[in-house]
Amino acid sequence: MDKYNFIQKNFNISKETLKTVDEAEEEIKEQFRYIDNIAEINQLRVMKAFSDNRVSDSHFTATTGYGYDDIGRDTLDRVYADIMGAEDSLVRHNFISGTHTISTALFAVLRPGDKLVSVTGKPYDTLEEVIGIEEEDGNGSLKDFDVEYEQVDLKNDGTPDFEQIKTVLIQSEVKAVTIQRSKGYGWRPTYSAKEIGELIHFIKKLSPDTICIVDNCYGEFVETEEPTLYGADLIAGSLIKNPGGGIAPTGGYIAGKKKYVELCAYRLTSVGIGKEAGASLGFNRQLYQGLFMAPHTVAQAVKAAILCGAVFEKMGFEVDPKPSEIRHDIIQSIKFGSPDKLTAFCRGIQKGAPVDSFVTPEPWDMPGYNSKVIMAAGAFVQGASIELSADAPIKPPYIAYMQGGLTYESAKLGIMVAAENLIGKAE
């Protein structure tokens, strides 16, 4: 069977789009070899952690009630800690999102009168209400608990402003800093684990007791090291993103220094109980299997992101990162410059998804965001950004953020359909 005839006949993809995608794919072959090497190393890291912790099918047994002595839950914590290069970790199905894990970490270590500083500019939109940025009092934010907040904006090139960070650390006692690895809804570089480590080293040199918390969402397994290996006190993320491998149906993780992970466990459950209780309810097998699949699945998503960047750059749109750049997360940004083009792209991604391909995404007032958001998310797990998805705030300069793809081949189809929607619309 000729695949080009099949694609044209069944998905209405023009020869022009097929040619553009073929040319782009040819240009990025070398990057794919680099990604395959990363994936192999990461798979070996996962295999060693599984072996060292003697993972067996007994760890998949469900517990109920209090969940005391849940060996599957407790062993999974140790497996994550080993993979992340951390002293300890907290991996639970009842973390509902990345925002939940980060919020848990912040509330765990901060006390009334403490100061929190974001050293990578404005935090992700959903954390603004957690912190209490420009929000009314009384909703239970950190601001309500008398936690002071300060933000150090990034420099024009999107890198941290070390001089301003130094000024803030010298002028006041800072209990904790937050570092956002990925770009969020911004147009700036994603930071590598090593670059985050350099920032942490700078902070610790000036203020050794300041707790460094990293929002690690979208970055896990894109490199062979995580920020905990470079001195992060805590990192946090979602299992329906990279580390869940497209199999975990929900959940999140926190990893880092043992004393801080314990505080996070107290915050999630209760002081004095912490990690000792919490039934796994049969989720363990999916969390283990998702973690096992994560290096391969993340590699598929990174390849899809590179292809997306190459295709839309060839179509005349500004993209970030460039197709030739080394990746530190799974996100590809495309600047469309108009709401119509942005919407057409997201609708194309939705049409090329395996689930709900017949649905037409519309902008809506999504909880936690300060502008309307359009989301293409035809996923097996609702909202899973390790699966092919795209989302964007409907505001200038109308940037779409595409991520995920359980398989490169399926993500490639979504990218082709999106490109077809944009034929003739590039400037």
Give an overview in words.
- The chain has 427 residues and is an alpha/beta fold.
- 41% of the residues lie in helices and 13% in strands.
- The protein is built from twelve helices and twelve strands.
- The longest helix has 31 residues, at 284-314.
- The radius of gyration is 21 Å and the shape is globular.
- It starts with a helix and ends in a 5-residue tail after the last helix.
Order of helices and strands: HHHHEHEHEHEHEEEHHEEHEEEH
Please state how the strands of the largest beta sheet are arranged side by side: 1-7-6-5-4-2-3
Rg, rounded, reads 21 Å
Q: Would you count the extended β strands for me?
A: 12
Count of helix runs:
12
Overall pLDDT, averaged?
95
Shape: globular
What proportion strand?
Answer: 5-15%
Regions with little confidence, pLDDT below 50 for 5+ residues: none
Structural class: alpha/beta
Helix content: 40-55%
The biggest beta sheet reads: 7 strands, mixed
End-to-end separation: 36 Å
Brief rundown of the structure:
The chain is 41% helix and 13% strand.
Task: Write the SSE topology.
Layout: H1 3-11, H2 15-27, H3 29-52, H4 71-84, E1 88-92, H5 98-109, E2 115-118, H6 125-131, E3 148-151, H7 162-171, E4 176-180, H8 193-206, E5 211-215, E6 234-238, E7 252-256, H9 258-268, H10 284-314, E8 318-320, E9 332-335, H11 339-351, E10 373-376, E11 389-393, E12 399-403, H12 408-422
Parallel strand pairs: 2-3, 2-4, 4-5, 5-6
Antiparallel strand pairs: 1-7, 6-7, 8-9, 9-12, 10-11, 11-12
